[in-house]
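tool_call predict_complex ligand=6-hydroxymethylpterin-diphosphate
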Amino acid sequence: MGRTKAASDTPGAGTRPWSPGPVVVGILNVTPDSFSDGGDFPDPEAAASHAVAMLDEGAGLIDIGGESTRPGSDPVPQREETRRVVPVIERILAARPEAIISVDTYRSATAAAALEAGARIVNDVTALRGDPRMAPVVADARCPVILMHMQGEPKTMQSEPRYEDVLSEVGDFLGSRAEHAIAAGVGPEDVIVDPGIGFGKTLEHNLALLGNLETVVALGFPVLVGASRKRFIGSITGVQEAKDRVFGTVATTVLAYEKGATLFRVHDVRANREALAVTEAVLTFR
Ligand code: HH2
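tool_result ok
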């Protein structure tokens, strides 16, 4: 059984800043309240050191966020978000000028400041719905953008998520957000889609999406999956402590890669990188 053909395998998809093959996206949350690593990096130096360690472990990208979007979280002011992320981006790039950094924000002013500081990708969990200025900022920067599906908003999204058909609703949403981005001037080769594991989804919704990821891959854009340490893994394994959910996370990475996803947003870089290397070796062996 082969791996589902992914958009990044297609000829012409050569303008992306990361290398071909599966990409581990190392998560760097510079927030006091993220669900698994909140408060771990209290100052920019500590955060940048962690990013460098993730790069050394094989992360192809670092995704830096200055506001938690965990269920029940509250927004932070835009200036505070920018104040958290920009000094860290500057320090990472001072240590590793070649590092590819994405900024996890739905606010255009934060994205613009991060791009100015050297970030090269925007990760927008609202898929360009959160701020009308975001699409033009991304289009002007000619940078890749991650468009994620979310039902509701972080404060209340887990209270009662409901779908008639989660697969077609998430697929249709991502397809129409990609069209919106392209109509706003984002290059089709710069669109990445993400089913938004845990964002307004029950355990069953997450399982349906991960088990049928081919429907998202079929949209023709690279697919990012962000399942790392999330609660649904704990509800299957019984592991309460988010930081201890690495084995369950690795299972999602291997499955998602086999189904055609190519970007994996994770906290535990080495474990996921090694699992992907073995999976890739087996799947590409002739
Ligand atoms: N998940 C989180 C944050 N950003 N971005 C994308 N594209 N996909 C995701 O699945 C995703 C994301 C939530 O995880 P985390 O950053 O670990 O926690 P928090 O939001 O509490 O900072």
